[in-house]
Amino acid sequence: MRSFSLFSFVLPTLLSISSLAVTLTDVSQLETFAFDYIIIGAGNAGLVVANRLTENSKVSVLVLEAGVTDQGVIAAEAPFLGPTLTPNTLWDWNYTVVAQPGMKGRTFPYPRGKLLGGSSSANYLFHQFGTNEDWDRLSLVSGDPGWSWPNMKKYIQKHERFVPPIDGHNAPGQFIPSLHGFKGEVFVSLPGNNQTIDPRVLAATEQLPEFPYNKDTSGGDHSLLGVGFLQSSAGGGVRSSSSTSYLAQANTRPNLTVLINATVLKLVQTGTGSLGAKSFRGVQFQRSSTITVTARKEVILSAGSVGTPQILQLSGIGNSADLKALNITPIIHNANVGENLSDHTLLPNIFTVQGDQSFDGILRSDQETQAALNQWVQNKTGLLANNVVNNFGFARIPSNATIFKTTHDPAPGPNSPHWEIIISNFWFNPGIDRPPTGSFMTLVVVLITPTSRGTIKLRSSNPFDKPLIDPNYLTTEFDIFTMREGVKAVKRFAAAPAFSDYVVGPFGDSFSAATTDAATDDYVRGLTTTIFHPVGTASMSRSFSKHGVVNPDLTVKGVDGLRVVDASVFPFVPSCHPQGAVYLLAERASDIIKFENPTS
Ligand SMILES: Cc1cc2nc3c(=O)[nH]c(=O)nc-3n(C[C@H](O)[C@H](O)[C@H](O)COP(=O)(O)OP(=O)(O)OC[C@H]3O[C@@H](n4cnc5c(N)ncnc54)[C@H](O)[C@@H]3O)c2cc1C
Ligand SMILES: *[C@@H]1O[C@H](CO)[C@@H](O)[C@H](O)[C@H]1NC(C)=O
Ligand SMILES: *[C@@H]1O[C@H](CO)[C@@H](O)[C@H](O)[C@H]1NC(C)=O
Ligand SMILES: *[C@@H]1O[C@H](CO)[C@@H](O)[C@H](O)[C@H]1NC(C)=O
Ligand SMILES: *[C@@H]1O[C@H](CO)[C@@H](O)[C@H](O)[C@H]1NC(C)=O
Ligand SMILES: *[C@@H]1O[C@H](CO)[C@@H](O)[C@H](O)[C@H]1NC(C)=O
Ligand SMILES: *[C@@H]1O[C@H](CO)[C@@H](O)[C@H](O)[C@H]1NC(C)=O
Ligand SMILES: *[C@@H]1O[C@H](CO)[C@@H](O)[C@H](O)[C@H]1NC(C)=O
């Protein structure tokens, strides 16, 4: 049976708990239609910029968000419930990918958060910054040393507030304090619920030189290679999103206006800038009617890797031939808009395990899940206060592997990973429902350095039509090679002595049959989906490069008054779960915007 949900929880509707960000104005309360800045999308990046720009009370900002509030949405608050927020819910854009040739022609959901906080409110809370090599490559590609790690790492202090785990355990050896911030906006914490497989995982890191223990999984100057404890964007047993942090801190500022349920239809040209470039300082959005607002200084597009290229194309900024074919008047020709989509893939490798120590029994029982929910509501402890996994790690393809005879190593450097292992104490498969009986352990393989590139194109000129999302997964030799090697490696992981009295064997016919390269490829192509990390659709490049969509200062090429600040500007997907990288990007973007628009 295909349901595409990780687990089905009976979500309570009656419960309304501690208030998050204050719910925002109705359109009739808009006192003006002109603002200094208009930010499109109250997501991961957009709310960082909204907060930083309104630190100066003289600066007025309007944020337009298509989605609903996150307030009182329990699934957005209890960390373990993160995976129940999507797909196909009130908080999701409900996208699907077009049929994927590298995946046996399959199509599947492509979730994106549609609520305050955007995908930072709907994600699975894994929190990392990427490797120093990711940022140094961005600096090299863009020609801007400001994007290099030595400069970017200072933003950790503004962004991160590392807090103790909910069980209060002393955690030396589970993270390295000098790599973290303790006074920033977003809570980050280690697991606070010792899972039964944790000691086995740690023992495996001692038994297998291939998977050494990693003392800190945040990245930066410290290597991501090896297996360690997950750091989650949560504190006190509650999710921390850009809404509960950056927005909540700024919500009382009189010059910040955030309008929810306001879908941006397109940008509107407003004349010509000082250097002759066309200005796009008008924004048309739909609430009960169509309303146009204008920015005195800039429009900042933070609608994410799907929404941003969609809005650019709807505004006549994109590939002219594609736009004409849809009866949209091209205004700025840029064939790179919506191109170069790059994403991480996810393959759950499920093992049957002994006994009843996995979470499968609890998750099957309405009574036990209800008890866990009650406990979380009561005092924010227990199963639901914790993330869905405790341990994960990263690895490289060995440098003597045959693939490097034909493919240049796509990693940003010799210390960055090619693939990821996520270790789950239960049936973790967003594509297939848990069987009615049995206990499981899942070792997810994620491709971290994809070389396949895809596209986001418009389906029509109607802004409410879902765009055509084609990540074009697993269409290169490197990508299928790396997934295949990942499957072989997680089998070696599960074969560690630490699991000998626990793991029974691979679950399912296609995983069991994956004993040759051909059969493994078949298994990979048949079951892999996404881990929801799209980037690249408004790529950053050098200032005078004709390739790419934005300049190193994130202004849109050939356009006046318009910037993009979100994951779409990363030309390569960071070697990690990207929300932390998006936060750092948005912190620096805010500094750039302030610098380029001095207020007297
Ligand atoms: C299900 C899921 C799980 C994930 N898990 C993790 C994880 O565990 N760790 C991690 O690091 N990353 C994870 N990610 C990825 C991470 O959350 C995203 O990469 C990141 O949040 C993207 O930030 P953004 O600012 O680019 O976009 P978003 O945060 O998605 O913000 C875009 C905002 O723009 C709004 N918008 C879009 N179009 C319009 C429009 N036309 N009008 C008005 N508003 C609009 C959207 O509603 C949204 O609020 C996950 C993502 C998903 C979807
Ligand atoms: C709000 O912003 C406007 C426009 O920049 C400015 O004129 C006004 O003084 C600001 N209001 C406050 C309370 O600072
Ligand atoms: C997504 O699907 C849910 C459930 O069917 C629905 O309530 C919601 O309105 C849909 N949202 C969008 C943007 O299509
Ligand atoms: C976790 O529990 C196991 C026993 O189940 C114990 O051996 C181990 O020390 C615990 N680890 C931590 C970090 O508390
Ligand atoms: C959102 O806006 C639409 C019209 O654009 C309207 O039909 C709907 O009732 C609004 N929902 C809320 C919660 O305001
Ligand atoms: C939280 O509540 C549960 C019962 O629901 C209880 O067992 C537990 O001890 C409480 N924890 C704390 C820290 O108060
Ligand atoms: C790579 O090197 C390792 C260790 O030196 C060796 O075991 C392995 O067979 C080599 N692989 C290839 C493809 O040459
Ligand atoms: C887009 O992808 C192509 C092919 O993968 C590459 O040559 C080009 O440099 C990329 N452009 C940007 C701006 O990233």
From TrEMBL:
This entry carries the following GO cellular component terms, namely:
extracellular region
Q: Which Pfam families match?
A: GMC_oxred_C (PF05199), GMC_oxred_N (PF00732)
Record InterPro entries:
FAD/NAD-bd_sf (IPR036188), GMC_OxRdtase (IPR012132), GMC_OxRdtase_N (IPR000172), GMC_OxRtase_C (IPR007867)
Q: Which residues act catalytically here?
A: 533 (proton donor), 577 (proton acceptor)
Top-level lineage group: Eukaryota
User: Signal sequence span per UniProt?
Assistant: 1-21
Q: Which cofactor does it need?
A: FAD
GO MF annotation list:
flavin adenine dinucleotide binding; pyranose dehydrogenase (acceptor) activity
Quick one: where is this thing mainly located? secreted
Job of this protein: Catalyzes the single-oxidation or sequential double oxidation reaction of carbohydrates primarily at carbon-2 and/or carbon-3 with the concomitant reduction of the flavin. Accepts only a narrow range of electron acceptors such as substituted benzoquinones and complexed metal ions and reacts extremely slowly with O(2) as acceptor.
- Which PANTHER family does the record match to this protein? CHOLINE DEHYDROGENASE, MITOCHONDRIAL (PTHR11552:SF147), GLUCOSE-METHANOL-CHOLINE GMC OXIDOREDUCTASE (PTHR11552)
Protein name, per record: pyranose dehydrogenase (acceptor)
Organism this protein belongs to: Hebeloma cylindrosporum
